[in-house]
Amino acid sequence: MQTVGELLRSEREKKGLSIKDVEAATSIRALYINAIEESDYKIVPGEVYLKGFIRNYANFLGLSGPNMVDLYRQQQQTTASATPLPDAAASATTTSPAPSLDDKTSQSGGTVKWILGGIVIISIAGAIWWVNAQQPSAPAPAPQQLTQVQPPAPPSSPTPTPAPASNLQTKPIQIITKYNDECWTQVIADGKEIYEGIPHKGDSLSWDATNNLTVKFGNAGSVDATYNGKPLGKLGDKGEVVVKTFTANQQKQ
Hints:
By secondary structure, the protein is an alpha+beta fold. The chain is built from seven helices and nine strands.
């Protein structure tokens, strides 16, 4: 009778399929397919997986999966019943010859010696324990009481005296400009150009000078100016070019 593996292999070869073809179609690893065909079932991880692989393999080949699993069970039972029992003669316990009277006597004497020796050792150990038990045990040292050391208090730092508020205007002349629109601007402080550019709408700029400060606006109507904290309003009309010179004591055109 053919084994399950032989039947599956024969059917596979009839259909012209390789083990790789079966693996791709059934998702059964080629290692397990080959093991089933060779009846090398110990490679497959567990009986449940093995029966499932046989069923799926058979169904894929057009055979009856359940019938193939039943055939596998029958073949396994037949194999188990045909396994010969171990030789009774090999499993028989070898009997040793009965000891002679002299051997019994020597063995008995040795046993007595061991027993007596054990009794002596136990007696000595018991005496030592009893003597030690009578000695008063040394009192356990009293636990030392830890003294809690208080950390030194941090030195009190003197309360800082607030410095007098400094005057934000560090020079005699200060001009602040606020822009409502873009305006080309040039600023000359004490004879030196300190700014030239086009501020954007919403910008606010400030300049200081010691002796005199000259500002030139290309769109004077878009600028509101403040001189030493005094609002001057717009210095000209929209689109008008205006030049203003400011001194520490006076404002002049």
